[in-house]
Batch of 3 targets.
Target 1
Amino acid sequence: MVLSVISLLLLSLSCEKQKADELPGDPVPINTEPYQKEVIRAANEFAFDLFRPLLVEAKGTENIMISPYSVTSALSMLLNGASGETFNSVRAALRMDDKTLSEINETYLKLMTEMVPVDKRVIMEIANSVWVEKRLIVKQPFITALQTWYKAEARDIDVSDPNAVDMVNNWIAEKTHDKITEMLDQLDPDLAMLLINAIYFNGKWRHQFDKSETYNEDFYVTPSNLKNVPMMHQKENFCYIETPEASIIELPYGQGNYSMVIALPAVTISTGELAAALTPDLWEEWMDDLSVGPKEVNVTMPKFKYRYKRLLNADLANLGMGIIFSDLADFSNISDQSLMVTRVLHETFIETDEEGTEAAAATVVEVCLTSVTPVNEMNLNRPFLYFIRETSTGTIVFMGRVGDPTVG
């Protein structure tokens, strides 16, 4: 009996080892068409353009984090409902003005479909949803497009329901594994629709840090402002380069499909100045140089955990998307009712320690009725006519006037 149990344990361990051995040891390529590479490059350009002003505003001391993929996913869903100048403005602000809607949609479907399962050692989850308020007469092709290209869940919502905010927040909390739990504080009384993207990421370092090698050390918030924080240490082979403006290292997760690229500015350059110089061309140059191969590096890195939340209205307007927040917005591909975007909310969370990184993001695009259709009133408090007819033939069967309803 004991031998049988031991044999089963050994067999189980052997199977688990075999499964582990079958997992790829290197990144698995996700093949993209030339136009899809261009959409991704444009999205990266949008990311840098959105990120730079945030750093300048924060003056180098505030922790900042955005998810460009989450923001562009939500705005690409919105793009499907835009028409005319609104469509052109949103597409241009996304830096995709030379791409068709089909090319954009197909790229996001490709990424959503293939980025999620590419590394069995990394959890990557992406969810989209569209919430339609009961007063909105929505066009079905718009909902179908979001379900087809963004795998969006279609939900109904009643803004007058006191539980409506909790319903949305609970959906986001579920999709982000409770890392983002209070995204919305209220809903606009004129709400027509919500477009939501949520992302959850949990990746273990390929080369984990030894917890026994973590010590409290000084971190220079500024040259004169020191904070004593837990600093992780390891010596390992990493892709690493030094440029005039920064030292750059790539720390891989799992099999390497996901990684954290860290850029440490030269001592004479601030993070804002480094970001100001960052373009898709420079980014691609960094990636090409990193791909040359690993070298032994002593890494000292702080553990960190924080969340970041921002209303993106002004930031998106500065990038050329202001029309969506005005009465000039044309979302006639969503509905014949007049609509405008009232809020684009974005929240992120990250925790990085010796084992890896857990991160989450959510973006909510709030679309509202620009003018609520008035409730028509007909107060029959004076004489009136009436007609009773057969509707299919138009035959009037009865007709009359009520001059005094008290007279029988």
Target 2
Amino acid sequence: MADTESPKALGELAPANRRSLSEDVAERLRSAIVRGTFDPGQHLSEATLAEKFGVSRGPIREAFVELEREGLVTIERHRGARVTRLSQTDIDEIYEMRAALERLAIERAMRFATDDDFAAMDGAIATLKRAVKARKIHDVVECDVGFHDLIYRAARHSRLYAAWSNLRPQIETFLHSRSMDTGDYLKRAVLEHEELRDVIRGKSKKTAIAMIDEHLRSAHERLSQLSS
């Protein structure tokens, strides 16, 4: 068997694609589902989507598998997939898990966040302020979730970040579909994220944990009220 580091073996390998077709399809479908282009429970036809995207059915099926893993669709044998209809139980489970993950993320971010991490948080808050002022709710949601993504990145924990990434699409779907129904979300968004940034920078573990618990509790409560 040829050594994989030998020139011959390396020469036989084709260059890796930077982004596969199925990943591109998955990203476009994910964005559409999260943004509410498709309704909960709506059927997604392989044939229709393949024609729409100008691809074969293979990348569509592979994208469905990825989105099912993220909890955004349910694959139906020989029929394509259906957009997941998330229930109150789903909200409860997702936010219980998110609270556990985010406590760890906050603790580690206080230890490992760099000046570049805080600069990124400052930039995210500035963008959030502009979105709130313009009352662009979908942009506000993306800034909100993007800020929390920066906390997980600052935690420097690859498996923690992977767990968050798996949960993130469902959280975004909830926020896009429901938060636009309440002015309280817009009113509090900037202040709450400024406070989170400051407490991470201040390295007060007790205050940080209490703050993230309250931040997520209020988000959970708001979504629960809107879905009832």
Target 3
Amino acid sequence: MELYQQVRTQTLALCQPLNAADHELQAAEFTSPLKWHLAHTSWFFETFLLKPHRPDYQEFHPLFGHLFNSYYNGIGQPFPRAQRGLLSRPTLDEVLAYRAHIDQAMQPLLADASLQPLIELGLNHEQQHQELMLTDLLYCWAKNPLEPVYQPAIQHSAEQTTLSWLSLPEGIAEIGHSDSVFAFDNETPRHRQWLAGGEIASRLVSNGEYLQFVEQGGYQQPQWWLADGWSWISSLPPEEQQPFYWRQHNNEWSAYGLAGRQPLDPHAPLCHISFYEADAYARWAGARLPTEAEWESAARLFPQQLQQLFGCRWQWTASPYQPYPGYRPAAGAVGEYNGKFMCNQMVLRGSSCATPEGHGRITYRNFFYPHERWQFTGLRLARDTA
């Protein structure tokens, strides 16, 4: 299966610019060391494919099933997430050997048609971790005064395109995945939703536009914030009451990213904001966030007119992460993949500059807690017309 080799190779390619110590970092409980990601994505194939479907399979290490389980309580007690950074052993070389062991053991299963859906899930799971590897690394490196550089800066257009508003008609829209190509279970079933009508912005909010909100005191004005958002932002030190990784020095703004610290590009799309910040800015701008149904309908209606839909920034929506009508998680422990997180989180749509190819699809539902902003998150505005 060619795709298996491609995905597994790409994961290792992301590690090429790094040294062994970079793989050990865990600066916060919500991040994981890159070494853990390398092992966990292999553990997935071992747990859900090799052990059930290869009676002759020999484990690489009897404790790896405990160390690299993430949250699948149906399988066993995972090693505490907050302590993954303490796992100096196994070494990086041992984890790479573990990956090679899994890849070799998987070869006889790759041609089994009955296992293709589960293999495909494992590969898409690994691609999700490829993005997490970059965002986790960025968060950890941001704690280092040296502010390391992972890759060269991406050059944006010197000019910003004019924002225009596209009309969303009132009526019933079909939402969700129904094609034969792969999708996660939280994208199904396809169903109908009522849209009240309105307008959606043709592009994402830029750094320059959001900077006006910052410099006009938006972070000190509670009228723009949800109560939970105001409590959250008020609890942060002043230097964090602005988009994540932004800094002002001698009246000049900069932002830290995978290309290191760069002068703030006013034309580039805003990045690293929480749902609370996105919602507050939208109110300040006389607009609102789109619902996920509005976003998906707009993406189907205006695939050419809507700019920066994919490959740029995850876009916060006004929709809580809940199951679609008729949703049923898969049976067994693999059913814990999405369903048990459908509480207290918000949906993001689109995809980011760190998202692997193929994950930027119209029905994809990303989700994070409303205060989280270490991902490549931005916003697209919507507004009512009545």
